[in-house]
Design goal:
Elements: H1 20-30, E1 36-37, H2 52-60, H3 75-88, E2 98-102, H4 103-115, E3 121-126, H5 130-138, E4 142-149, E5 155-156, H6 158-163, E6 169-175, H7 187-199, E7 203-207, E8 231-237, E9 249-256, H8 262-274, H9 280-290, H10 296-300, H11 305-317, E10 323-324, E11 333-338, H12 348-359, E12 361-362, E13 364-365, E14 376-380, H13 385-401
Parallel strand pairs: 1-12, 3-4, 3-6, 6-7, 7-8
Antiparallel strand pairs: 2-9, 4-5, 8-9, 10-11, 11-14, 13-14
Helix pairs in contact: 2-9, 3-9, 4-5, 4-8, 11-13
Length: 405
């Protein structure tokens, strides 16, 4: 009998945020084991819920959302996105520059599929949000990872970026605030990346999904404001800032020099049209979310729940012998370093699996974020302080007795 196998295009595609360790966690849950699931930034699971007015607006517009809409999205939502960026100082855009997608994840795939031919190169940070690497690989491109330096607060290493550019390099991805490290980049680093991109005629892809989740009043700079000499593709959405990841509301904004990328933009238009349109009911959350009071500020400011949880993770990790992490400046994660020699760690996936089985806590190993060494893992700090403290107690107990076999 003929057997069917997955496409070879998937041979080097991985997404370990939902990989084999997660499969084991799901199996354990089916057997009745309670697992603290810290593999994804999924706010509602931890009772970090959407504002009531967002839910109300989606509900109110359900009847008018039964049909397809424009392939780029409903006009009021695209207009609201334009106005949002205008308040940040980005004036040279209009509604035609905005594309609404089923989460920014769908749009990341469009960005890579429309750009990359076989063996074209794209610069992506390490560690990275793995969907970028997976999407570029699936599109046939060659991913070249540039280093984010842990010793420098996880900022991109500009010289490493320069050293990895070739005639085949088409673009550079910047994830800021960063997932998985929580780094928020200073203006001089972003300006350095812009300078490199302009000098080498690269498209800039700015993943800014966590731009509302920044701690301790750190200044934040949108990449699109720093250049009009090359094309900047900004990706964002409501999943994290407004706690509606299940709504799949994301957008992409094209700014800067569109003239050099007319054919590429036509490719994005083709892909957008092929999927007809994004989820229409959820698009009605955008106008309400981007206008008026931003409730996420209550969570990230001193005294807020996310700020407190960030502090718990940072302080407790650095108190455990053999573990350390840079203080997250944004987002929802800490990227924890393990003293691999102390614990005889040669396989970080095995480390995550052992932690899961012994302490019933699911984390993601560092190599799942395309980090080249077996010495990190990412932990999500969304659980309420009491549960997060219990989680850290389990981690401390585990590390006190752990030696990888």
């Amino acid at each position: 009998m003929r057997k069917f196998y997955k496409s070879h295009k998937l041979d080097n595609v991985c997404y370990d945020i939902r990989g084999p360790v997660v499969d084991e966690a799901n199996k354990m849950e089916q057997e009745g084991v309670d697992i603290i699931m810290l593999n994804t930034g999924n706010p509602p699971v931890f009772q970090v819920n959407a504002p009531d007015e967002v839910i109300r607006d989606v509900r109110t517009n359900l009847r008018s959302s039964e049909g397809y809409c424009h392939s780029k999205g409903i006009f009021p939502a695209r207009k609201a996105i334009v106005q949002y960026y205008q308040t940040k100082g980005l004036m040279d855009i209009d509604e035609e520059d905005v594309y609404i997608g089923n989460g920014s994840s769908e749009l990341i795939q469009f960005c890579m599929s429309a750009l990359l031919d076989n063996d074209d190169e794209i610069l992506i940070p390490t560690p990275d949000y793995p969907l970028w690497t997976a999407s570029a690989t699936l599109a046939g491109g060659k991913v070249v990872h540039y280093l984010c330096d842990e010793a420098s607060d996880w900022y991109p290493d500009l010289e490493d970026i320069r050293s990895k550019i070739t005639p085949k390099t088409k673009g550079i991805v910047v994830i800021n605030p960063n997932n998985p490290t929580g780094a928020v980049y200073p203006k001089e680093i972003l300006e350095g990346i812009v300078k490199i991109a302009v000098e080498n005629q690269l498209i800039i892809f700015a993943d800014e999904i966590y731009d509302h989740i920044i701690y301790d009043d750190r200044p934040y700079y949108h990449m699109a404001l720093l250049t009009n000499e090359t094309l900047v593709v900004t990706l964002n959405g409501l999943s994290k800032s407004h706690r509606v990841p299940g709504f799949r509301v994301g957008w992409m904004v094209l700014s800067g020099n569109r003239e050099i990328a007319r054919d590429y933009i036509e490719g994005i238009d083709i892909l957008t049209t092929m999927r007809l349109c994004a989820n229409v009911p959820a698009q009605h959350a955008i106008q309400t979310s981007l206008g008026g009071y931003q409730s996420i500020s209550d969570l990230v400011n001193p005294g807020g729940r996310l700020h407190e949880q960030r502090d718990i993770i940072y302080n407790r990790v650095n108190q455990i012998p053999g573990l350390s992490c840079v203080e997250p400046a944004g987002a929802l994660y800490a990227f924890v370093k393990i003293d691999a020699s102390r614990f005889n760690i040669t396989d970080d996936t095995q480390f995550a699996l052992d932690f899961l089985k012994r302490e019933k806590v699911l984390v993601v190993q560092g190599t799942g974020f395309n980090w080249p060494e077996q010495d990190h893992f990412r932990i999500v700090f969304l659980p309420e302080p009491v549960q997060l403290t219990e989680t850290m107690d389990r981690l401390e107990h585990f590390m006190a007795h752990y030696l990888q076999e």
